[in-house]
Design a protein that fits this description.
Elements lengths: L3 H18 L8 E6 L3 E4 L14 E4 L4 E3 L8 H10 L5 E5 L2 H7 L20 E2 L8 H11 L4 E4 L3 E6 L2 H22 L9 H11 L6 H9 L4
Parallel strand pairs: 6-7
Antiparallel strand pairs: 1-2, 1-5, 2-3, 3-4, 5-8, 7-8
Helix pairs in contact: 1-5, 2-4, 3-5
Length: 225
């Protein structure tokens, strides 16, 4: 049986490769997952789409490195603050797609397509473009995120949280897709948004066991032979 930590490592690298293939990562950004004993498995200070298993590091809840050759990301405080504030969160993605930056400085996320149904409760906007380099700023991002599954950072990017890496990958992809469709629709005129009831019905269906498998398998097939 595969060791749980080794499985997490494989999934983090796979998530990064999928997001890189979809053009959603640049030279910055990071993915992390909670480990037992107040530890965090994280991509290091390097382009996340280029990360290999050997590059992953383990840090503590203060952001101090415990294992690995690489160095922690400059915005590690965002991760540690969210994990402290949200015991339900098991993994975090922070990235900078142009689509998320665009909606972060305008109307924020609106659910205008089915891929946005996950975000019907809203993705609050952290109202600063500054990098999250200390605990005070990290705590502010965690406070802005509150109990939601995503937060936009004005002029900066977005952060998505989930209870497992499969869900994180789906949310990470769909967050960008719904922003892109929203931007496209805005050029055509006023867009009609999904109702709360419609979104709740769709998300309940997606919460069924293995309902994400077909979605994920398609994107994974793009990076794995």
């Amino acid at each position: 049986m595969l060791d749980p930590v080794e499985s997490l490592k494989d999934k983090i690298v796979l998530c990064c490769k999928v997001l890189q293939k979809q053009g959603m990562l640049d030279g910055y950004g990071h993915v992390s997952a909670r480990l037992p004993g107040d530890r965090i498995l994280s991509t290091p200070h390097m382009p996340p789409g280029k990360v290999a298993l050997r590059d992953l590091i383990v840090i503590d809840m203060l952001g101090q490195k415990l294992e690995g050759a690489g160095e922690p990301n400059g915005e590690t405080p965002m991760h540690t603050s969210i994990y402290r504030a949200r015991p339900d969160v098991q993994c975090i993605l922070h990235y900078h797609p142009d689509e998320l930056v665009a909606v972060s400085v305008t109307a924020g996320i609106k659910v205008v397509a089915n891929c946005g149904a996950h975000f019907y409760r809203g993705a609050p906007i952290y109202d600063s473009p500054l990098l999250i380099r200390n605990r005070k700023l990290g705590d502010k991002v965690a406070e802005t995120l509150s109990d939601r599954n995503a937060v936009l950072l004005r002029g900066h990017g977005g952060t998505v949280v989930a209870s497992d890496l499969d869900t994180l990958l789906r949310l990470g992809i769909d967050f960008v897709r719904t922003a892109k469709i929203q931007i496209m629709a805005a050029a055509l005129g006023a867009a009609k948004t999904h109702s709360q009831a419609e979104c709740e019905q769709m998300t309940k269906t997606r919460e069924r066991s293995n309902t994400n498998r077909r979605f994920l398998d398609y994107y994974i097939s793009e990076v794995v032979d």
